[in-house]
Amino acid sequence: RPAIVWFRRDLRLADNPALAEAAASGLPLIPLYIDETGRPESEADGAATRWWLHHSLAALGRDLAQLGAPLCLRRGEPLAVLGALIAETGAARVLWNRRYTPHAIATDSRIKAALTERGIEVRSFKAGLLFEPWEIATKGGTPFRVFTPFWRACLAAPPPEPPLAAPTALCPCPDAPSADALDSWGLLPTKPDWAGGLAAEWQPGEAGAEARLRTFLDHRIESYAVARDHPGQAGTSRLSPHLALGELSPRRAFHAARDKAVEGAGLDRFLAELGWREFCAHLLFTQPDLADQPLRGEFAAFPWRDDPDGLRAWQRGRTGIPLVDAGMHELWTTGWMHNRVRMVVASFLVKDLLLSWQHGAQWFHDTLVDADPASNVASWQWVAGCGADAAPFFRIFNPTLQGEKFDPDGAYVRRWCPELAGLPDRWVHQPHRAPEAVLRQAGLSLGRTYPRPIVDHDVARRRALAAMENCHGGE
Ligand code: FAD
After folding, report:
1. Which CATH class is domain 297-469?
2. Does the annotation flag 285 for ligand binding?
3. ipTM value > 0.85
């Protein structure tokens, strides 16, 4: 009787323990992906993720077909889909890799109980994280709320297992079950098709993930510790969407980096960033309402403003603050934004515009190709000052100074706001302060070809501090 391997955010053949177990058993195999209905917004796929998912499923389907076991696509409530597939095929085992978000945990527990009761063997495996979120705890057994001791505890634990090889052959199910056509799911945007910039930047699928990993390890990791902060340079791995959809396992990234890179700051820093991914998963696992509630309770009554025009200007990259606008254009065009700039645009939304971090998290969730329910909300709360290990609210990024420090020659801003390209370095991060003659020479007309700032940072900073003071007497 066949076994079902239920793929979720683990769209790969290599280091896929559920698939490896099924392959080793020699049983006929039905690889399955379900487009799950009924997920809450925070765990449903955003538009950019759906674009990625389409291409990733196409790639996985090709790879599985080559091994002899075509991918079965079905849409619906997952227990109903599994129940129907079991009834059709007589499958006796269901295997999957674990997931850690609140709705997914509840879904998987419910399905496991229901199928076990029907005599179906259900087995789950660790594949999406280096460490199970419940394995790492403080000496007192409580969850960590500060990154450095969390990561120290991870590094003191038994190291992550080496990654498993991809199976070289699979035993197909003699009567392949019927499957939806991928195109019928409508995952790709049509009216309008805004995904041209995503297609130009990314190669979804396991082969694309492996190519990114190789490029990073061959050319970038040694200088990563410094280069990672400069958005104008290609200094980071850009592995995040591949990790988010599980085309690359964190174990593969961890071990490949350790095997390849010379020991030093670049390697340590890269592993620690993988550690931040673990930390965010640990936070959401131990604080399941992280998407709805500030981790620090005193922020529950924070007097966020309501400002649809400001929110729209931020979303569209029309704030008049070059680094913020460049970041939002990069996001809209490619589905990704450099980490330094994510921090700056997030700080601008929350502190300069005083709009709730949840507006920002929702926009990111929909537009990022690496949208991850844990990393996204934990990072937004971190920037807003209400999350774990966050800098205090009163430390407010000055977006102009951030630009001058991390994009000193304006390469990033010129790329994503080409209307500013003609400005000299001195003014490229603050066109509103440039003399009229300089603007004219650069072909720039403020308020016409580029917006004036929608807020004055110094005024906004004082307003934010006053709001915090009123909320809970300051920090
Ligand atoms: P690298 O610098 O090459 O890092 C390697 C990997 O480590 C990344 O691919 C990622 O998986 C992980 N990582 C790195 N930094 C972080 C971090 N601060 N937190 C968690 N994991 C990290 N990352 C997401 O994967 N999904 C999100 O939805 C997401 N939302 C964010 C929202 C905000 C407001 C901020 C400030 C950060 C967010 N991040 C998110 C974290 C970070 O910006 C991205 O992981 C990183 O920019 C991805 O680029 P990279 O792959 O080149 O990273």
Report:
1. mainly alpha
2. no
3. yes
